[in-house]
């Protein structure tokens, strides 16, 4: 069936996009920093040391390569089994998410490692001069009201659709869905609040770079929030209208769009060439 | 508009903040009615205790350089430019000099003045 062919293409695209294309772009960015900011001049940029940064890069590369190979093996196995009739397409609905979780693992490690390095950076910061903007930071300095309220409205629309497809009966399954949405959006609200009102994560970062970074993060949060709502609507519709064969395709497309609008947007909005690296120089 | 503080400077941090905000007003880098960051935001950005920023804001509010509008936040006072020219410390010094001269003329000793001053100040 043609739906199977489309799923093969979409799932293979998921493997390449998240385990090859984005890691390659991130590795290029790491190379750019390691090349343009040597440890001798930019000591503050490597709180764990230059060698550790290089080792981290190699580890990230190997990890993504292993996940890419696993993905190709899963893909080939699934296609063969599906063609031979041993497995139905609808049985593979969990595949995009299960493999997607594995694909997200290197990104998670990267985030945790970045937070650790920033903490070390703050502890090692001995500069006596500190700067601050004399302007209040508001949510709408970073995200347009249209975008923000679209995310809020989508949350309510999604909740309404979920209830209506269940004939407005509050069941355990509905509680889990609404709870997941609340948890996801609550996480964004919490992290957003820390970014807006909390301490500077990077003590050396210039205010322009902080503004760009915060804008990119809010852009990503609102996009993902809207997508989560859309996903839950599709997910419930698939169950309600018995579109079982479509579910794996929706799942893989959803996962890729999430990555495009989160990691992809972050990479696009934060250009390394525009970052002020002078603040990391040892003498600054 | 950015402000810079030096934590190794012998001048207290709250005084550095007061001076820099007054300079920003006098230099028209911030205008009357402009919003200012919240105490928490400024304290977090400068990595100092929020009580230090609160003290600076309190002094600026006393001098009518800034004004707090409750939950809406803190803003530059409409008369801020004129008010930040007033040196309240210099005014207080001249008032005390005048008063001490008067007391000395009446024969009050230095120690009597100190004790009375402390007693009155502590009773307030």
How would you explain this protein's 3D organization?
The complex is a heterodimer of chains A (284) and B (124). By secondary structure, chain A is mainly alpha-helical. Chain A has 7 helices and 1 strand. The mean pLDDT of chain A is 88. Chain B has 124 residues and is mainly alpha-helical. Chain B is 57% helix and 10% strand. Chain B is built from 6 helices and 4 strands, in the order E-H-E-H-H-E-E-H-H-H. In chain B, helix 2 crosses helix 3. Chain B is elongated, with a radius of gyration of 18 Å. In chain B, 22% of the residues are buried. The mean pLDDT of chain B is 90. At the A-B interface, strand 1 of A face strand 1, strand 2 and helix 2 of B. Strand 1 of chain A pairs antiparallel with strand 1 of chain B.
Largest sheet of chain B: 3 strands, antiparallel
Helix segment count of chain A?
Answer: 7
Please estimate the helix content of chain A. Answer: over 70%
Residue-averaged pLDDT of chain A, rounded?
88
SSE series of chain A: HHHEHHHH
How much of the residues of chain B is beta strand, in percent?
5-15%
The structural class of chain A is mainly alpha
Oligomer class: heterodimer
Intertermini distance of chain B = 39 Å
Q: Cα-atom Rg of chain B, whole angstroms?
A: 18 Å
Count of DSSP H/I helices of chain B:
6
Greatest chain-chain contact: A-B, 16 and 26 residues
Strand proportion of chain A, as a percent range, falls in: under 5%
Q: Tell me the total number of β-strands of chain B.
A: 4
Using DSSP, what is the number of strands of chain A?
A: 1
Radius of gyration of chain A: 22 Å
Inertia-based shape of chain A: flat
